[in-house]
Amino acid sequence: MKSSNSRIDPWPNLSLAYSGGNLPQSLLVVGPTPQGEPAIAWCQILLCEARGESNCLCRSCQKPLEDHPDLAILSPSPHTIKIDDVRSVLQSLGYRPLWASTRVVWIQEADKLGVDAANLLLKVLEEPAPFVHFVLTTEYPDRVLATIRSRCQKIHLPETDRSRRELGPDWMLARPLLPEHIVDAVWYVEEAFRRTHQTTWLVLWENLLQAHQALATNANQEVWRERIRQWWRLS
Ligand SMILES: [Zn+2]
Questions:
Q1: Which of 19, 143, 155, 168 is most buried, by the most CB atoms less than 10 A from its CB?
Q2: Cβ pair 132, 91 in contact under 8 A
Q3: Domains in the chain, start-ordered, CATH in brackets?
Q4: Phi, psi (rounded to 5 degrees) for 12
Q5: Distance (Å, rounded) from C-alpha 118 to C-alpha 79?
Q6: Three-state SS for 30?
């Protein structure tokens, strides 16, 4: 049993996986793009040659992450992650790691994988070499190929740090009205109520919980979207 690691302590789900010695080979980190930190911390832990804490002085921890010989980063260029890029990274996985005990592939904005690229990746995710780890990050998990999602352990980041503007109607209502997006909004509303003690937030909180329940039993998304839009206006 490994102890917790201060690099990932702020993210309980990651911390739990680590302390259980259960480092998922494929991890899908769901959260807004600016919160790339858990993915960075996770890559650093995987690449560390001493399995060390944040002040580790091993060769890998001292190297800037993007220059590490065992890390490959895939990102959209400019709008999609291209199949040629995916292919060349996957080909490099045939070689054992140079410094670390694992090769790490970080796929940024995984929702931007083209269909062909996603299918190519899927073949490797189904049976990765034991010395390979994948870290996928996305703000829109529902746009990631379902078969890829099902191959990954999913970590959903809490949304407590969002500003009002980011979590307002523009944020939630611009997305498919999924229960997990309502959960994000509930986080925000709960914080707002604790901060202000205004009952309007409490009412909105209760309404969102109702919406969450209704959508879990396949209620009409558009009807609830319109209701939520009204509630946001009233708050
Ligand atoms: Zn280290």
A1: 155
A2: no
A3: 12-156 (3.40.50.300), 164-234 (no CATH)
A4: -55, -40
A5: 14
A6: strand
- 57 CA distance to ligand 1 middle (Å): 6
- Centroid of ligand 1 to alpha carbon of 46 (angstroms): 9
Distance (Å) from CA 110 to ligand 1 centroid: 27
Burial of 87 (0-12, 13-18, 19+ CB in 10 A): middle
Residue type, 207: N
Residue listed under structure tokens 């994000």: 184
- Under a CB-based contact definition with an 8 Å cutoff, are residues 74 and 108 in contact? yes
Element housing 133 (H / E)? strand 132-138
Prediction pTM value: 0.67
Encoding tokens for residue 120? Answer: 């190519």
- Residue range 85-120, pLDDT digits in tens: 999 999 999 999 999 999 999 999 999 999 999 999
**Partners of residue 71 on adjacent β-strands:** 104
Q: CA-to-CA distance for 108 and 106, rounded, in angstroms?
A: 6
**Ligand 1 ion: nearby residues, β-carbon < 5 Å:** 48, 50, 52, 56, 58, 61
Q: How far is the CA of 90 from the centre of ligand 1 (A)?
A: 25
Residue 182 main-chain phi, psi, to 5 deg: -65, -40
Q: Which is it for the CA torsion 30, 28, 23, 84, positive or negative?
A: negative
Which tokens is 18 given?
């680590």
